[in-house]
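CORE FACILITY INTAKE
Project code: CF-77B
Contact: R.S. (postdoc)
Sample description: multi-component assembly, three entities in total
Requested service: structural model of the whole complex
Turnaround: standard
Below are the sequence entries exactly as provided by the requester. Do not edit them.
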Amino acid sequence: MARVIFREERCKGCRLCTAVCPRGIIKMSGHINEMGYHPAAVEEPEKCTGCTLCALVCPDIVIEVEREEKAV
Amino acid sequence: MKKVFKRPEILKDVPFHYCPGCTHGVAHRLVAEVIEELGIRDIAIGVAPVGCSVFVMDYFEIDMFQGSHGRAPAVATGIKRVLPDRVVFTYQGDGDLAAIGTGEFVHAATRGEKITVIFINNAIYGMTGGQMAPTTIMGQVTKTTPFGRDRETNGYPIRVCEMLVPLEGAAYLARVAVHTPKAIIQAKKFIKRAFEVQLAGLGFSLVEVLSACPTNWGLSPLEAVKWLEENMVPYYPLGEYKSPAGGAIND
Amino acid sequence: MKGNEAIGEGAVRAGCRYFFGYPITPQSELTHYLAKRLPEVGGLYLQAESEVASINMVYGAAGAGARVMTSSSGPGISLMQEGLSYLAGAELPCVVVNLMRGGPGLGNIAPSQADYFQATKGGGHGDYHLIVLAPNSVQELLDFTGKAFELADYYRNPVMVMADGIMAQMMEPVELKDEAQVEIPAKPWAATGMIDHPGSKRIINSCYVIPEEMEAVNIRLKEKYTQITLNEQASEGYLLEDAEIVLVAFGTVSRICRAVVEKARQLGIPAGLFRPITLWPFPAEELKRTTGKAKCFLSVEMNMGQMVEDVQLTINGRAPVYHYGRLGGMVPVARDVLQEVQKLYSGGVVK
């Protein structure tokens, strides 16, 4: 179980996250946010593994990631 | 569920003013995470440069100085000599550090000044509108090299890490990039080492960060990270150039 | 004590523990003195790679709350101008000593007062002022250096002490007061790390991209400069009560002019001397007040005519204002200045 949270009002639509997602589930939205950009969003959230790659490359710290901790 | 990735508290919760795809934001975050993880927020003092990243003084919720163009290492020297138990770092671009500020960073290094320099190399002047930087690579088109940088007119790009290696006062030198997840993970590791070298009192530390400037490169952010990989990394190889001997840093 | 040493000792006794500098004649002996003296009191003398670096080290140390100083001469002070503008903009206290030499360009190492405009009219960019003190004895070099640190901290402004190679090399007896524990005022703005002021970040800054904010800062600075102008004008008068011809001179030249006044009096010429101690703020109020009977002013300077403009502004057409200057490192001789005074007196200017 994992979840990514996009603060879409902070997204500048640079698309860097879309290119690194191993599941290919981050797409650019059709609508425009308050800064005037098409924000990135997750299309099929259930496929997210919480790998954090999108958050790592995001220059605007738009993305938070939550993940179920593995049992040790 | 546990939060495994969140904004560092040291970074003020406001949008960065940087252009879409500009990787200053990644470098800011890495420095902030390192300061948080090392638990040095209360004793950290930063010096901002002149250029796009002057506003690093607003983004970091720690004590900050804004220095004149290129002089951040001299300002940091003044701070560190008065407050030797503080962790003092500069954040400088390539025009600031490697052109107008060449005297200051070289001499801070040669004195073994116990400061950490975060040097953002994006091969161009950003704030002033895309002119040739000392680190602009051969053939690169900028506003002031409209036919590409050529050696007859402009000479060669400066490799900062390599030129500092022989200086005895330089204790830690590394070049990283922030264009891929793998590079970013390594970048954070080396930035942390640079701060650890300062904390251990071992001398001058500098991390050069290859960074993308899509706007002034005239590329989309995705094209820009590709251009960085294909053009900058071959000229500016990544890795640690100097590290203290004797295992002073845990690895 | 030698002038250069007096400046250094004055700084140490004022609680200055940090000096960042770069060698240049004729101030090098000051750095030699402090390189030995500062470590004795737990301080630091650091030789920078340039004057550009040293003034920015001063910026860092001042912002970190220290009493800090640098010194140089003409060409080096020129290199510091950007830093001085930043120090003024960020309102950081520090002391800068300029032991002036002949110029422009590399010039020479002989005494000069040609940096008056640079010091008093804002040598760097933007709207700002330095407080500028002009001692004329070794005792004053010592005392004014101490005073400079007090003014710098009180007003949060860079202060310049201006003299020349003659003063730097001069030997005179000085009275050293007991080395008391110096009370350095608290600096609740210094950026020393949040450990000292939890929860509230501090920035040392002169950058205001929004014009409204920059203007507000400029207005605040202007109010400060007005206060300094009201409170800190300092000068000294000699035989001014009945003086019809008033010599105006500072520093080294004021010593020569004192002798000129005495000789003129022996010849029956009612001369007097007005000596600015603060060059900025220029002591205009005192000059106006004490020279009511003056029929003519002669500004004697080691330059082409710089302070004379402030005298003219002050006198504002009430009486003629003349300039006598020696240039290029030449020092006015009392006999020549006296001749100038006689010429003005007999030429009918003083009637």
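Facility notes:
- Residues 2-67 of chain A form a domain with the Alpha-Beta Plaits fold (CATH 3.30.70.20).
- Chains A and C do not touch (no CB pair under 8 Å).
Invoice: internal transfer
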